[in-house]
Fold this sequence. Notes:
Endonuclease Iii, domain 2, mainly alpha, DNA damage, HhH-GPD_domain, 220 residues, disordered N terminus, Endonuclease III, domain 1
Amino acid sequence: MGGRSVSVASKTVSPVTPEYWALACAHLAKKDRVMKKLIPQFGNAILETRGDAFVTLARSIVGQQISVKAAQTVWDKFSLLTKKLTPAAVLKLKVDDMRAAGLSARKVEYLVDLALHFSNGTVHVKDWQAMDDEAIIEELVAIRGIGRWTAEMFLIFHLMRPNVLPLDDVGLINGISRNYFSGEPVSRSDAREVAQAWSPYCTVATWYIWRSLDPVPVAY
C-alpha cells in the first residue's frame, strides 16, 4: 500500500520535508471537500525523504514481491557485504555472496544493472532537479527491475515532486474508492477525474489518501 514495499528507514540521516506542504494543504482543503476533512485528521505528519538515490532504488528492488519484514532481513544481510553501499562497491560483490544474503538470481541481476546505470552515467542524477517527472521516469524504467510504479514512488518519496499521481498504486485506487465513491469500484479515468481538483499537488493528496487507509506514514 502506498509505497510500503519500498519503505526505507534511517536513524542517522535527518529527514528532509517539502517546502510546499502547507501551501498544498491549503489549496487542497479549498478545492476538495474530502481533503478538507482528511488533512486535519493527521496533525503535523508530513512527507519525508532520507538517504541517497542509489540506496533508495536498491532497496526498492530488494523489497519487490516479498513482505516488508522479509525485505528488511535480506537488506540487512546484503548491506553488510560492503562498508558503504555505492554503485562501485556493488559491482565488486560476488554473485554467490549476494545470493547467500537471500537475493534471488533475478534481483542480483537487477542490482548489478542498477549499479551499472549509476556508475556509467546513464542516469543523470545531477540533472534530475531540472528535469520533468516523465523524463526521470523514462530514465528509471530503462533500468531492469524498475517499472513505472517504482519510478513514481521514487519521485514522491525521494525527489518529493509535488504533482505525481500514481494510478498503478492499489492503495491510491482503493482510497479514492472509499473516500469518494462509497467503496464502489473505481477506474483509472474515475481517479483522474477526482485528481483534477488536486493539481498541482497530486502527491500531497495521494499521501493523505494513503493515510486514510493506514495512519502510519511511510518513510522512504
